[in-house]
């Protein structure tokens, strides 16, 4: 390319005069702007909007990842968060400069000097990030591809290719590592021979019943369960790695030991009851609330006390012809897009109290937006018979 | 396959800048923007940025960006050709380097004012 045009101080001053600016009002450094020689290669750069948290994460040297298969919208994952990536467009022109002196960096001096600056390109697009929920639906369906229903049902040849490793799941599910880890434990997924799979609910029921059986045989109280003895008693019946994981879902360490020095565990009543209740709800349709409670009570070990709150996020009670009918309505099956979720909720039920709707939207609450604020934004509140209710924003 | 975004080898990314203009810049004549002169940027003693582009003068302000930008630079690590059901596909193995962050910009959002004078011809 022919010699580049070089701005001179004199030319710059002539223009200042033409513009009827008093040169003495200007600081003494002028920064003439040029397009860089490679301004046509600007497309190798992308702008992405980041909040201060992400900025810190990056500056600490953590790697971020764009995740998603070809037919999915991309998300950005940090170690513990997932963000939706959306392209935004502006009609303004954004000129990118690799160096520039800001007003407080331009010193006063007697004579004018020129400091050339290069513009790398003009941009009209950038990517916005919005925190979003990890794609748990997909995780659930991957985990359910190969349910585990006991060693006798395992085909030895198939075993090698059955299920997904943690990395395999991470590559397929749009979620950060920590969110995936948490989801695997929430979903009570089981790691069998290095592959993550769901237990067939009937098999899970069997293992849990066996554990509870050992507790009963030994006449232990629910907060004095000896893990090693449970494992020993069931070693012939349930593969060790499954038993240990299953045990961990329904117990927590008490922090004390028995007279032999063995660590003691507490059976978590809420989790056992919830699992038993879900088994009933998922298999029997159209139960009245009363019949459900009776069946539920019969399914749990003696000495445990039911609370309907154990079924939060799993169950709906509907009034049909003056009868209260229970319905299996797992929160985990609802859309992960918040406004879609609200429309599903208001479709199934017109009016919700705060306590009723809470378990179905709590997942979306975050530091600056609690459940109350979510309801203000996505629902309309009214009072009916003195009770505060929430209805659809676009309601009738 | 996830695409990795990482910080440049040197550690902390540099701080770059944006000048935001209302509307578009048009090139004088034909051809690309490459190496072309755009205009002069001044600051008044009251720290107001002044940009003179051609026959136009713009007054702006220095803005701290509420959400900073990261400038990502695309790197193609390797290209693998393979065949799938639809025939040969090039699989680009890509990563992004955080070249810089942008925390401040000069925003010129008012309409440019014309300069009424004979500006000497630019070569």
Automatic annotation (TrEMBL), chain A:
Domain of life: Eukaryota
One GO cellular component term: Ctf18 RFC-like complex
Keywords: DNA replication
Pfam families: Dcc1
Keyword Manganese attached: no
Any one GO BP annotation for this protein: DNA replication
Similarity remark: Belongs to the DCC1 family.
Name of the protein in question: Sister chromatid cohesion protein DCC1
Organism: Gryllus longicercus
UniProtKB/TrEMBL annotation, chain B:
Pfam families, per database record: Ctf8 (PF09696)
Lineage: superkingdom: Eukaryota
Protein localization: Nucleus
GO molecular function per UniProt: DNA binding
GO biological process, one term: mitotic sister chromatid cohesion
Main location: nucleus
Keywords assigned: Cell cycle, DNA replication, DNA-binding, Nucleus
InterPro entries registered for this protein in UniProt: Ctf8
Entry GO CC: Ctf18 RFC-like complex
PANTHER family documented for this protein: CHROMOSOME TRANSMISSION FIDELITY FACTOR 8, CTF8, CHROMOSOME TRANSMISSION FIDELITY FACTOR 8 HOMOLOG (S. CEREVISIAE)
Similarity section: Belongs to the CTF8 family.
Protein name: Chromosome transmission fidelity protein 8 homolog
Annotated source species: Gryllus longicercus
